[in-house]
């Protein structure tokens, strides 16, 4: 494979002149430009854009750290990001981490070594202290509420959102509410659990630790939980579920087992995914698609920005 | 070092079957699974893609051309790709095209200018003639049946698969079957429509052109179609639907309107997504996750390879 030096040698000009011709730069004498073009043809030289990017310090690549791509929540977010990026000259590089810290650090190191220009964390396991260390490596954007100089973020106030949903269930006469969350130590889960505990305290109700269900992410997790709750004979009167897939698994399995929703157990989902519409699930609308676009805008801005995202309860038939 | 082809050859099965066994995928016959395990032992095959003799590029980036990321079919495929890549030093660059030709050509140009090492087309609009022009730019892998020198592919025989499903419905006494497809001019749709027409001819049945429903991709498309069919009073006795999302939209909406499935109308979906399990949908299992891994292996091998993927009908409660 011919490189720029081969072209220069054959054309009898400097590498800088070849570079000028390649970039349609003015002030190249006509005979030299012709010699360069002839040499390019003869050597079959292809311009390696990576080399140019290194010079300019711009790769036009935005890294996306995302735990899973096969989950509707994350794929919708990724879709919003990809759509926003598609209106620019940028491309996205996906780091599908499965919450593996090494993969997250790998992404940070690519930012540091200038292989990507910006990095968006859709969700993370790695500590904020580690992220801070890469602060000066390039633009980092987080999808959570942080206050770190130079790092932009968009976030949902999961505390308020959970509080609103719990109040709504309380108004509908539910006093024993269970919550289904994903990773207990995730930033969102911590806020949600706090809202849950504060709600019980504010209503002077007894909280049962066994009513906090963790590790719920996929439809099948909901189906399994429904079977467990049905068999146990010890089910809360309402379930606040942090994603529609799990809520759909709960709903369809309860129905299969002969329970009516909301008569036997009320359910609120989260995300307002298409499946929730089909199943008439009451859920919380989160504009993932728009958030994806917002994150890209933040990744491309030189200023540090911060946005709170509002959520709304969509009342259907499961409460 | 043995590769997946050597294992398949020794076991006397397809590469897709080996991939299914490696991924503990269900729906593999016991004797085939045993043969595969025996062949793995004999060849000393290891699934670590890094261990295979790979063509090492300079960017360690693999481009993925994919129309949408927010659709379960494509996101599961992308997930398989991302998972396979995560065992290597490579990263993926996503070209989310929304079937826009310019975006597809953009990806091909990035391959040509060596910004990526390989390019996998999950689905395309751009003509094969254009793709051929980039043949020497780097490794191109297509997820469809093509015979172009230097271009690898994995594919599903959509014709045979549709024929099998139609025969299954015919055995269940359905003689007026409707089909729901996505883009009418997509490569898969063309094969499927041909199978549909050939089936009607072979059974000496009259095909009604209005029983071919196009533009069906999302759950809401199925919901809308169900309402239209219910109101029209002119519904086939069975529907063969090319994705589970649409099938789920049809099923839940028919139920809402008071129709029973399969008594009033039978439904077969496609993909065997989680939603189909929850709704007891009869569907066609396509091992998207394994296919994603296969495509990556093909993208990293220097040889040109071709694999046919087997599909199976998963019989549940909607036929």
UniProtKB/TrEMBL annotation, chains A, B:
SUPFAM superfamilies from the xrefs? lambda repressor-like DNA-binding domains, Periplasmic binding protein-like I
Keyword presence, Transcription: yes
Keywords linked to the UniProt accession: DNA-binding, Transcription, Transcription regulation
Which molecular function GO terms apply here? DNA-binding transcription factor activity; transcription cis-regulatory region binding
- Location of the HTH lacI-type domain: 2-56
Q: Report what the protein is called.
A: Transcriptional regulator, LacI family
């Amino acid at each position: 494979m011919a490189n720029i030096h081969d072209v220069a040698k054959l054309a009898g000009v400097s590498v800088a002149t070849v570079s000028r011709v390649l970039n349609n730069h003015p002030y190249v004498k006509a005979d030299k430009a012709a010699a360069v073009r002839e040499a390019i043809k003869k050597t079959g030289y292809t311009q390696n854009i990576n080399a140019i990017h290194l010079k300019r310090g711009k790769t036009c690549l935005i890294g996306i750290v995302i735990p899973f791509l096969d989950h509707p929540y994350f794929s919708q977010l990724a879709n919003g990001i990809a759509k926003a990026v598609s209106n620019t000259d940028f491309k996205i590089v996906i780091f599908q981490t499965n919450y593996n810290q090494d993969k997250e650090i790998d992404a940070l190191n690519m930012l540091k070594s200038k292989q990507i220009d910006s990095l968006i964390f859709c969700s993370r396991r790695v500590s904020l202290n580690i992220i801070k260390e890469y602060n000066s490596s390039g633009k980092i954007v987080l999808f959570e509420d942080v206050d770190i100089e130079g790092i932009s973020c968009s976030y949902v106030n999961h505390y308020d959102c959970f509080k609103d949903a719990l109040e709504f269930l309380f108004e509908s006469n539910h006093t024993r509410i269970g919550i289904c969350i994903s990773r207990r130590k995730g930033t969102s889960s911590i806020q949600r659990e706090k809202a849950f505990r504060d709600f019980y305290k504010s209503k002077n109700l007894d909280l049962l630790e066994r009513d906090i269900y963790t590790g719920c992410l996929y439809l099948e997790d909901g189906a399994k939980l429904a079977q467990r709750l049905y068999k146990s004979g010890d089910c809360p009167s309402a379930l606040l579920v942090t994603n529609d897939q799990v809520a759909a698994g709960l709903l369809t399995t309860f129905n299969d087992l002969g329970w009516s929703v909301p008569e036997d157990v009320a359910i609120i989902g989260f995300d307002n995914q298409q499946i929730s519409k089909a199943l008439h699930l009451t859920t919380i609308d989160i504009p993932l698609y728009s958030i994806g676009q917002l994150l890209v805008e933040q990744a491309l801005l030189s200023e540090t920005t911060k946005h709170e995202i509002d959520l709304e309860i969509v009342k259907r038939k499961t409460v």
